[in-house]
Each structure stands twice: as C-alpha cells, then as structure tokens.
Write a structure and sequence with these properties.
Elements (H helix, E strand, L loop, with lengths): L2 H8 L5 E2 L5 H11 L7 H10 L4 E6 L2 E11 L20 E9 L8 H15 L4 E6 L4 H5 L4 E2 L3 H7 L7 E6 L3
Parallel strand pairs: 4-5
Antiparallel strand pairs: 1-2, 2-3, 3-4, 5-7, 6-7
Length: about 180
C-alpha cells in the first residue's frame, strides 16, 4: 500500500467532538495557520461552548491536527472578528463556518470534504437551509468547490474590512 493511502486510513475518517482537553492544541494550530488574523484563545472556547455540535477536531495518531469551528447565525450578518458572540440567535438562518484549519502536513486527504459533509448533515438535521463564511487568503476558489458563492452588499463590505483585504463573504445553500 502506498504511503498516502496508508496515511488516509490512519487519519480519523470522522471529525470528532472537541473537548476542553484539546483547547491548547487547537490554539497552537490557529496560531500557526492564522498569523495575519490571530484570535484570542477564549474566542474559540466561547464558540465551542455555545455550539459544540458545530465544532469538531481532526485527529491523527491521537493528536489534534485540524479543527472546524461553526455556529448558528443569521445570513448577511458577519460575526465580529476576535470578539465574543455572547449568544446565538433564537431563530438562526444559517450555520456560520468560523474557521476550518488543517496542519499543512495533513492536507491532501479530503479532511475538509468530510467536515463539510458533517456540517451539511447537521444543517439538514436542524432544518437550516444555508451555510455562510468569510473566505480569507484567496480560499474562495476552494470554498466554491462546496457550492459557496460570493455575496456582497454595502453593509457586508464595511464589516469585511476588519478581516483584511482578501476577505469575501460567501453563502452556500443546503440541498435536500
């Protein structure tokens, strides 16, 4: 068996819940991946505590090698960067994907595909018809693979400025 297929088998095929014991490892990954838009560790902690079903970790040899953080939210409303949410909306209109990060050495094994499958199923279970996110670093092409499309209006454009020049607000309709 070739090395890539062996690694794919060893990477957990499902994203697992993120318990408090993984918060330090998650923040180390975030610091490594997001050097230009860092967030305080307690920002991730709050999101995980508010919506644990939408937050998952990717494991390899019992070590956290990636994470996906999402929460219930409303379309056309961008959560503030590096700030607390405080609460989730009572009648959410989307699942907002806050961040998906996989260590560089673990990429290329369709981990993001499996996370997106999970989030799509979660949205269907909760009768949520849309997903939303802010794409950074030119990843809008990557997200378009999953059906995300760039959406813009004046209010969104002003909020995106805090995310940096490459930020794009994207929406994906959940099918089925």
């Amino acid at each position: 068996m070739n090395e890539k297929k062996d690694m794919e088998k060893r990477i957990s095929s499902e994203w697992q819940p993120l318990g408090k014991e993984y918060f330090d490892a998650l923040n180390k990954i975030a610091e490594q991946i997001h050097k230009t838009v860092p967030e305080r560790p307690e920002i991730f902690t709050e999101k995980i505590e508010l919506f644990p079903d939408g937050c998952r970790g990717l494991f390899f040899d019992n070590r956290l090698v990636g994470y996906g953080i999402s929460h219930l939210w409303n379309l056309n409303s961008i959560p503030p960067l590096n700030d607390f949410l405080g609460y989730l909306p009572e009648n959410p209109t989307c699942i907002y994907i806050h961040d998906v990060a996989v260590l560089p050495e673990m990429r290329g094994h369709k981990a993001a595909d499996r996370f997106m499958d999970y989030i799509m199923q979660l949205a269907k279970k909760l009768s949520i018809n849309s997903l939303a996110l802010v794409s950074l670093y030119g990843t809008d092409i990557f997200w378009s693979r999953f059906g995300f499309k760039i959406y813009s209006n004046n209010d969104i454009e002003s909020k995106l400025k805090t995310y940096g020049e490459t930020a794009k607000y994207m929406i994906c309709k959940v099918s089925g």
